[in-house]
Amino acid sequence: MNPETAYPEKMKKTDNIIQGTALLAAGFIGVQIATILFSGEAFCLNQGCKVVEELTRVPPLFVNLAGLLFFLALFVAARRPQSGPHPELSWTALLLLTGLGAEGVLVGYQVFVIHTLCSYCLIIFGVILFLNLISGRRQIFLGLSVFAASMIAFSSLNFGQSQMSLKTRTLLSGTFAKTSCIAPENQLYLFFSANCPHCQTVIKALENCNSCEMHFNPIEPIESLEHPELEHFPDYDPSLNRLVLSLLGIKTIPVMIIEKTNGFSLIKGEDPILSYINQVCFNNSEHNPYQGQTYLPDQSYGFTPEPGTEGECEIEVECPDPGQSLSPALK
Fold first, then answer.
1. Cα 105 to Cα 148: distance, rounded to the nearest angstrom
2. Distance CA 312, CA 310 (A)
3. Which residues partner with 313 through β-bridges?
4. Which of 77, 83, 138, 195 has a Cα-to-Cα distance from 166 of 20 to 30 A?
5. Phi and psi dihedrals of 195, rounded to 5?
6. Of 265, 219, 260, whose CA–CA distance to 243 is shortest?
7. Mean pLDDT over residues 319-326, rounded?
8. How far is 283 from 212, CA to CA, in rounded Å?
9. Which of 170, 56, 166 is nearest to 112 (CA)?
10. Dist CA 170 CA 220 (whole Å)
11. Rounded to the nearest 10 degrees, what angle do helices 119-133 and 3-39 cross at?
């Protein structure tokens, strides 16, 4: 067999591998799409996937649809016989370069911006990298050049606050304001929404507490919060608060997190939170609007991923309460 016929035969075998791998990848993504449609959540091998989903503007369903179309297009391109003086510069090669460039952006974002890796994304990246590596020396050189260029670009950019590693961020990073207490006995973080009347009731009850340093962590941007003696944090990030609840599997508010020396405790719902602050946040009983309620630790500590039915609002929708109008305290 002379070199002129050996090279096309080698390309044909490579195209067969590309076709089979593209179909397998398309099937894998198809299963992910079905999982999203039927369960509402994407299948994730680690928490990094949820972090990446929360920080991207495009819903996971559309991202996976784009990936499905990419691998189907790659399968069709690999089935077409290559012709011309440079068969290596084919639609297959261009699609592989495009895919590696897109993966360079995604991997660069995870490595240099949020410092968290998504296992599902890495699987797709590995498939595209493999197909580039088996497509010849020219394709390897071009593909690695495109990927390296994306990574170098990300490593040289400054993304400001979003570049802060999630590992170094704390609950205070999502605090809109906090109460000013002298020698507070407790550090509390209230996760709330401006359109939830149960959150409003809890905030109203906290106006006279005098032994807790209360942090207000909204799950969306707010303009103001009418509350005595507040210290505001203009650089707060409300998306971090929604991300925290998402990672914990919590879908309702209000939620209160209690910071302790050996970790954190968590309480969900209006009544358990009011009972807790009644016990620990009022040194002067004359200012306690909920005196007489009992805090039940066995029922209040810990969190339940399932949405509650009373005293809680769904995070994604407004919580209707026809008998109560919203106060201007939350705007």
1. 10
2. 6
3. 253
4. 195
5. -105, 15
6. 219
7. 39
8. 10
9. 166
10. 17
11. 170
Q: Are 199 and 192 in contact (CB under 8 A)?
A: yes
The span from the CA of 276 to the CA of 313, in Å, is 19
HSE-CB of 90 using CA atoms within 13 angstroms: 24
Q: CB of 260 within 8 A of CB of 248?
A: no
Output the six-digit token pair for 179.
């109460």
Q: How far is CA 80 from the centre of its chain?
A: 40
Backbone angles phi, psi at 137, to 5 degrees: -65, -40
Using CA of residue 311, residue 313, residue 319, residue 324, what is the dihedral sign? positive
Report the relative pairing of strands 230-232 and 255-260 from DSSP bridges.
unpaired
- Tell how strand 212-218 and strand 186-192 pair up: parallel
Q: Which two tokens stand for residue 8?
A: 């096309």
What is the per-residue pLDDT for 150? 85
**What is the identity of the amino acid at 202?**
V
Give pLDDT tens digits for 160-198.
544 445 555 678 888 888 886 665 667 889 998 888 888
- Nearest one of 254, 25, 53, 50 to 127, comparing CA atoms: 25
Residue 42 structure tokens: 């994407």
Q: Which three-class secondary structure string do you get for 162-224?
A: HHCCCCCCCHHHHCCEEECCCCCCEEEEEEECCCCHHHHHHHHHHHHCCCEEEEEEECCCCCC
